[in-house]
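Sample 3 of the quickstart, ligand dinuclear copper ion:
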Amino acid sequence: MIALAGFTQSAVNPAGPQSAHIYHLWHLYLWICVAVWVLVIAFLIAGLTRRRPQPQTPDTKLRRSVITATAITIGILFFMLVASIQTGNALATRSFTKPVSIEITGHQWWWEVHYQFSQPDQEVVTANEIHIPVGRAVILKATSQDVIHSVWIPNLDGKIDAIPEHVNTIWLRADKPGIYRGQCAEFCGMQHAHMAMLVFAEPEPKFERWLADQRSGARSSAGAVVMRGRQIFENAPCVLCHTIRGTGAAGTTGPDLTHLASRTTLAAGTMPNTPGNLAGWITDSQRIKPGNNMPPINVPSEDLQPLLSFLESLR
Ligand code: CUA
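Result:
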C-alpha cells in the first residue's frame, strides 16, 4: 500500500487541550516509573554486591525495611490514582459555546461522518475525512452500525468506543492547523488495521467554505464523457449501496460519494484518491481490502474510463 504523506498521528505531540491533558498525565507516569525502576535496580545491585551481613539479620530491621518500602509504594500508587482522576475530570469538563457537532458511525471498515445542525437542510454527510475549524470545540458522538469500533485521533483526544445502539460523546479542539490521522482502536474484524480517518483542522473561513461545498448536491462537470460516466454509474449496482445526492443513487450501505473527489484518500485512509487507485478499487476491492462489503464490479473496459471521469469530477 502506498504511504500517505503530510499528516501526523502522535499522542506525544498534542494539538489541543484534551490531548494535552493526556500527554501531561503520560509524562508524569513515565518519569515516576523511570524513577522507581532506577531505585529498584540500584537497590538490587547494592544487595548483590555488598558483603554478606551476619548470618542472622535482626528481624526488626528487616521488618522495618519491608514496611517502609510498602508504604512508599502505596503512596506512589495513590498519587498516580489521584493524578489520573484529575485528568479524567479535566477531560470531562466542558467550557465552550457553539461547538461543531459531528456524529461518527463505525462500519466494517469505514467511518460515516454526519455534521449535525438544527435545520435539516444544513446537515452534511461524508465519510472517512473530517474537517474542523481551528480553535472551536467539536463534539464527537460515536456509534456503530455493526460491531464495536473505537475512534482514536491521538493528536486531539483519547479513545472513545463506538458501540451499536449507543452513543458515546467526547469533545475536542484543535488549536493548531494540521492534518491529524485517526485510527480505529478496537479490533473489529479482518480489516481493522485499514480503518483510518483524517481530520483536517483548518481556519474557520476555510472550514465554512468546505461545509458550504459539501452541502450542495453533486456538481460534476457537464462534458460528454462525464455524462456517459454518470449513466453508467446510475445503471450499475453502485446505486444500491452508495448515495450521490442529485442523482438516482441513494444507497446507504457504503460511503456517501456526493463529493468523492474532494477527499484525499480512498477506502478509509488505505490509499491516495487517484484515478488508478479508484479503478483498482471498483474492479476488485477484495484484492485491496479482503473481506470488505463491496463486491467486485464487472465494468466493461470501455465503460471504466467514463465512470472514473464522472466519479473524479465529484468535487
Ligand atoms: Cu473498526 Cu477496528
